[in-house]
Amino acid sequence: MSKNKLYSIAGIAAVVLVVILVSGLFLKRKNGSDTDKPVYKVKRGDLTISYTESGTIKAKDQTIIRNEVEGRSSIVSVIAEGTRVKQGDLLVELNANTLNDQKIDQEIRVQNTEATFISAKENLAVVENQAKSDIDLAKLTLEFAKQDLEKYISGDYLYSLDEADAKIALAQEELSRAEQTLKDSTQLAAEKYISGVELQTDTIARKKCAIDANLALKSKELLEKYTYKREVAKLKSDVSQAEMAMERTERKSNASVIQAQAELKAKESEYNRQQDKLKKMNDQLGKTKIYAPTDGLVIYATSAKSNRWGNTQPLDVGSEVGEKEELIYLPAGDASKAEVAIHEAYLKKTEKGMPAIIIVDTMPGKTYFGNITTIAPLPDGQRMWLNPDLKVYNAEISIDDNDPMLRTGMSCQAEIVIEQMKNVIFIPLQAVVRVGSEPTVYVKKRNDFEARKVKTGLDNNKMIHIVSGLNDGDVVLLSPPLKSAAVETENRKLLEQRTQNSAGAAAAKPVEQTEKTITPPPAATEANQSANTETSNAEDMKKKFENMSDEEKEKMKKQFENMTPEQKEQLRKQFGREKPKE
Question: What are the two backbone dihedrals, phi and then psi, of residue 353, each rounded to the nearest 5 degrees?
Answer without folding.
Answer: 90, -10
